[in-house]
Design a protein that fits this description.
The complex is a heterodimer. By secondary structure, chain A is an alpha/beta fold. Chain A has three domains: 168 residues, Rossmann fold (3-Layer(aba) Sandwich); 160 residues, TPP-binding domain (Rossmann fold), CATH 3.40.50.1220; 183 residues, Thiamin diphosphate (ThDP)-binding fold, Pyr/PP domains (Rossmann fold), CATH 3.40.50. A six-stranded parallel sheet of chain A has the order 3-2-4-5-7-6, sandwiched between helices. In chain A, strands 11-10-9-12-13-14 form a six-stranded parallel sheet, sandwiched between helices. In chain A, strands 16-15-17-18-20-19 form a six-stranded parallel sheet, with helices on both faces. In chain A, helix 13 links the parallel strand 12 and strand 13. The longest helix of chain A is centred in the first third of the chain and has 15 residues. Chain A is globular. The relative contact order of chain A is 0.11. By secondary structure, chain B is of the alpha+beta class. Chain B folds into two domains: 89 residues, Alpha-Beta Plaits (2-Layer Sandwich), CATH 3.30.70.260; 72 residues, Alpha-Beta Plaits (2-Layer Sandwich), CATH 3.30.70. In chain B, strands 5, 6, 7, 8 and 9 form a five-stranded antiparallel sheet that branches. Chain B has a four-stranded antiparallel sheet with strand order 2-3-1-4. Classes of the chains: A alpha/beta, B alpha+beta. At the A-B interface, loops of A face helix 1 and helix 2 of B.
Chain lengths: 564, 187
């Protein structure tokens, strides 16, 4: 039977298991939107294409499935760019579909024509320009396969308007044929044995857990591995939740705003087992002095990440779950009591959990708000964030025990990610509690998506940490630019009234004792809710490794007297 | 030092742009890049000469090339016995009296005069970089009007293979792979 290109697109999306598409229509994609009415896929109309990209990303991270975002040509497509690069940096499988002017107009600067495949070339795992209807089925099949396999990532399909309209025979391709794309799975025995030898001889080993652990679904086997070998586990920002924060072997987060005992453990280690992480500059600090005495085993699916920042001793290229499963029976039970004891002593000097003993100084600190939120939700909510101070505090004080519940923009550091990714996550888990923890700066970048939340009835609670500053930039100006505040003060709107204008129930919280009642109220109120926390203006995130400093040269958390 | 890579890529529109864009994006300097068809119509072959600081750089280039979906195979032939060739067309200012001198030079380099005009000739020379450089040096005093070079192409001798140092990447046979996942491969 002959179908139009647009119909073929939807037929293929259905076969890929797509339930929801986040998008915004426009001239060059109208045939696709017209055909959509005949297919049982839910479309979420966003307020800005960046929102669609982040929603698809949030949906993907919460569900583990491929997210789909859609936009028209020209400005529609360029508005996706921030979201595409966010998905790329954090290895999120998202398929982006954009409309393009008719094939015969390409290159002629037609209305709303932009070279979208050119623009997105370096920020996608792969992209396609489709000029004919009979290419669509094959391309969509390949795009989903590429997006979700190997090291996942965004794939963009730019479809010319004529290809959407033309009719052709619909043949769903049975298989994908990509001679240049064969992601590795298992490492050879010989390499595994070299790794085991290092593990056997290690006295002070540390596991570094990254996003790859969650993407590959390796959490369980890694937990068995860590317990069997008694090796403590440090996590990257995106690795949080891959190993339970409440487990005695957990060291919490590493890196620039990581726990001091965690960074000290890494610096003093004699073996690092890097599992699905990429030694980003935010976790290594100065590379010259990074873990100077440690041998390194790097389990990684992307060969280009090996030796990129840190020279490693044993690279194991393949799927993390497969490789750790292969390693598990090869290792013995080890005793690292002395090493764990040493780490416990560092930890006793003050870690994130010491916040429970802080005195109430009558001021509203973001850290306290996050901690209250964690306690009241029993650590069970899905938490998304923007980027900046509140993100670091949320990472430090919302102790994640489970994977796929901590959704944040890591590599790209895209402000405006929090609210849309929370809406996306809601479409993956409509019965879960979802909190978007955002700053006053980041929230305003995508605040228009409140309308989307209302239109869709998305049960998303938004907690705005309002300090009237671009807090992280302010903190850097305080520490490294002699407190010369430059373009960081925000004269904000009345967020309660803003929410009210959207028909969203909202409350403002200014005192510590109001925090818990407000959270209770928000949890009991159905649908989207906004809580504005007017927090301390000049709080700083500790610990902090200044950019370029060694990982052990931290500015520690100020010690506060415990409550008597 | 200069490294020479041979990359087999799918013969599809835009692949050259992807490779060039990758080198720019990752801050590698291309010394020369030559692309052409192969014995198979669906595959193109690139010879890429890059200046690398050390072995890690060579590894990075190889591994990053594999990130491109259309790249099928990459080998580093720098340290292997190869035949490498570059072709240059050099237009030299030549009065009828100078032609004999140019002819003699061409004979020594086994180059050919492929065009003669009243006041110039075009010399075609093929060979290694070194040979072409020497020829250019000798022609320069006579007066080079125009020059074009193809960039290097390379092929390993006999059954020699280039180095494939990216573990786990396509086609190097280093790693076992899940047959179900790769059921699609035939290359």
């Amino acid at each position: 039977m002959k179908l139009s290109g647009a119909e073929i697109l939807w037929e293929c999306l259905i076969r890929e298991g797509v339930e929801v598409v986040f998008g915004y229509p426009g001239g060059a994609i109208m045939p696709v939107y017209d055909a959509m009415l005949n297919y049982p896929i839910h479309h979420v109309l966003v307020r800005h294409e960046q929102g669609a990209a982040h929603m698809a990303d949030g949906y993907s991270r919460a569900s583990g499935k491929v997210g789909v975002a859609m936009a028209t040509s020209g400005p529609g497509a360029t508005n996706l760019v921030t979201g595409i690069s966010t998905a790329m940096m954090d290895s999120s499988p998202v398929v982006f579909i954009t409309g393009q002017v008719a094939a015969h107009l390409i290159g002629g600067d037609a209305f709303q024509e932009t070279d979208v495949t050119g623009i997105t070339l370096p920020i996608t795992k792969h992209n396609y320009l489709v000029t004919r209807a009979d290419e669509i089925a094959q391309v969509v099949r390949e795009a989903f396969y590429i997006a979700r396999t190997g090291r996942p990532g965004p794939v963009l399909i730019d479809i010319c308007k004529n290809a959407q309209i033309e009719k052709t025979e619909f043949v769903y391709p049975e298989e994908v044929r990509l001679p240049g794309y064969r992601p590795p799975i298992r490492a050879p025995r010989e390499a595994l044995q070299r790794a085991v030898k290092l593990i056997e001889n290690a006295k002070r080993p540390v596991i570094l857990l990254g996003h790859g652990a969650i993407i590959s679904g390796a959490e369980q086997v890694i937990q068995h591995f860590a317990i069997k070998t008694q090796i403590p586990v440090a996590m990257t920002l995106l690795g949080l939740g891959a190993f339970p924060a409440s487990h005695p072997l957990s060291l919490g987060m590493m890196g620039m705003h990581g726990e001091a005992h965690c960074n000290l453990a890494i610096q003093n280690a004699d073996l690092l087992l890097a599992f699905g992480m990429r030694f980003d500059d935010r976790v290594t600090g100065n590379l010259k002095t990074y873990a100077p005495n440690a041998k390194k085993i790097h389990v990684e699916i992307d060969p280009s990440e090996v030796h990129k920042n840190v020279r490693v001793d044993v690279p194991l290229i393949g799927d993390l779950k497969a490789i750790v499963s292969d390693l598990l029976p090869m290792v013995d039970e080890y005793d690292h009591d002395e090493w764990l004891q040493q780490i416990a002593e560092w930890k006793a000097e003050g870690d994130a959990r010491s916040i429970m003993n802080w005195p109430n100084d009558g001021k509203l600190h973001t850290a306290h708000v996050i901690h209250d939120l964690w306690e009241m939700t029993q650590g069970g909510a899905i938490v998304t964030t923007d980027v900046g101070q509140h993100q670091m505090w949320a990472a430090q004080y919302y102790f994640m025990d489970k994977p796929k519940r901590w959704i944040t923009s890591g590599g790209a550091g895209a402000m405006g990610f929090g609210l849309p990714s929370a809406i996306g996550a809601w479409f993956a888990h409509k019965n879960e509690e979802i909190w978007a923890v955002v700053g006053d700066g980041g929230f305003q970048m995508t605040a228009a998506e409140l309308s989307t939340a209302v239109q869709e009835g998305a049960n998303v609670k938004v907690a705005i940490m309002n300090n009237s500053f671009l807090g992280m930039v302010r903190q850097w100006q305080e520490f490294f630019f002699e407190k010369r505040y430059s373009a960081v003060y925000l004269h904000n709107p009345d967020f309660v009234k803003l929410a009210d204008a959207h028909g969203v129930p909202a409350r403002r919280v200014t005192k510590p004792e109001e925090v818990r009642p407000a959270i209770t109220w928000a949890r009991q109120t159905p649908g989207p809710v906004v809580l504005e926390f007017v927090v301390e203006q000049e709080d700083a995130v500790y610990p902090m490794v200044p950019a370029g400093a060694s990982l052990h040269e931290m500015l520690r958390r100020p010690i506060r007297q415990p409550q008597s | 030092m200069q490294h020479t890579f041979i990359a087999l890529v799918e013969n599809k529109p835009g692949v050259l742009n992807r490779v060039a864009s990758l080198f720019r994006r990752r801050n590698f300097n291309i010394e020369s890049l030559a692309v052409g068809r192969t014995e198979r119509p669906d595959i193109s072959r690139m010879t890429i000469v890059v200046d690398c600081q050390d072995k890690t750089d060579a590894h990075k280039i190889e591994a990053n090339l594999y990130k491109l979906i259309n790249v099928i195979d990459v080998q580093d032939v720098t340290h292997k016995p190869t035949v490498t060739r570059d072709l240059a067309l050099i237009k030299v200012k030549a009065s009828p009296e100078q032609r004999a001198e140019i002819n003699n030079l061409a004979a020594i380099f086994r180059a050919r005069i492929v065009d003669v005009a009243p006041d110039s000739v075009i010399v075609e020379v093929t060979g290694t970089e070194d040979k072409i450089e020497s020829m250019i040096e000798l022609l320069r005093p006579i007066g080079i009007l125009e020059m074009v070079r193809t960039g290097q192409i390379a092929m390993t001798r006999g059954s020699y293979q280039g180095e494939r140092r990216t573990p786990g990447a396509n086609g190097n046979g280093w790693y076992e792979r899940d047959p179900e996942e790769i059921g699609l491969a035939e290359f």
